[in-house]
Structure formats: structure tokens, C-alpha cells
Amino acid sequence: MLKVILIDDERLARSELKRLLQEFPDVEIIGEAANADEAIEKIEALNPDLIFLDIQMPGKTGFDLLTQLEKAPHVIFVTAYDEYALKAFDVNALDYLMKPVEPKRLADALLKVKQKDEEEMLSYNNRGILGEHDQVFVKDGERCWFVKLSDVRLFESVGNYAKVFFGTNKPLILKSLNALEERLDEKVFFRANRKHIINLRKIEKIEPYFNGGLLLDLIGGEKIEVSRRQAVKFKEMMSL
After folding, report:
1. Is residue 99 domain-resident?
2. 63 Cβ partners below 8 Å, 6+ apart?
């Protein structure tokens, strides 16, 4: 059963979507919200698999809402602003539907959710640890991404922020490296030094470095030093 929350400031729009979703027996609507703050509370309390999210709402937009979530569920945008959505949203949304929502487009969007779940086998575990198959929402200025953590090769500390390296992108997020380290799966993400957390799957080459440290080449071309203390831990983790 797919647990769903509807988020739209227009009651009639929520009612119409509810009516359309009745045709899908494997969809359960577990909540509704009329604004971003109410939605955040419900998402954190009810842990939905999917949210249908309006972009333009009074106060905070749908994008503002996503930046405040620790971890994003699947998102299908429902919007009256095609051009705005295309400009503001960068590639990895599961889908977005134009109002008024057409039943065929809704069916296609829900199929994408099912395929995504099968492909990634996303799990929301009780410890709150983010695994490599989890996806997170990243917003930097006007640009937004859904990023699968397995695609992130490096986090770099920049004061109170962290730079996230994936593909050719390096957006900044308001998270300290220590906070990230607590949330990331230590089997995949390793604290190489005071300034860097690396994805172990993205290492291309390992070389000895001075003072007993190591130098790692990542697939994006970055060279990251592993401090002497962390090099001991790294060798223990990577040895048979």
C-alpha cells in the first residue's frame, strides 16, 4: 500500500485529486495539508511514501517545504505553472502534473513511483540512518535536485555549510559535516579528515601519504587526504 499525503492550499484541488485517487486501490491517503508548515508536521509524523505537492502556496512554496525536510519521500508536483516548474526544478523529480489533473497522467505518475520503489527498494529505517539508496532534496539558490546518495562522491565542510559533490554539481547545504556524519551509513560514507566525508564506492586510487596518512583519488578527479588517525580506521575497514 502506497501511503500518500496531499498538499495544496486549494481545498477543491485536494478534493478532486482525492476523487481521482479512489480509482487506485493500492493508494491510501493518510493526510492532507493546506500549507507548508502543516505539511512538514504531517510528513514527519506520518512518514508517507509519496506526497502530491503544489508549488505555489501562500507563505512558503513547495520547494521551500522540501528544503526543510530531513529526508524527502517521493514527490509528484501538482501545479498550474508549467513554465515555472520547469525553470525551478532540476531533472530528478519523479513527475509533475498540470492542473486540472488528467486521469491518464496520474496513472503514469503512480507507475513511476512503483518502478522507482522496485528499482531502489527505498527503506525508511527507524534509526534515521540514510543509506546509499535513499534520496535527498538539495536546494541551492534557485536550483533544486533530488539526489540519490549513491551518486554523491564527497561532502566538503565550508564553515556551517557542506558542499555536496555529485556529477558536475557542487551545491551548498546548511548542514555541518558532524551532523551529516551522524545521519550517513558508515559502511558507505567515511570521514576522511576534518573537512571531508567520502563515498567509499567512489574511490579510484589509494596512495600512501606523508605521516602515515593516505591520498585517495575519487572518480570526479578530487584528491582527498586521509589523516593518519583515520587511515588506521580506513585500513581496518577495507581489510579482509
Report:
1. yes
2. 55, 88, 89, 139, 144
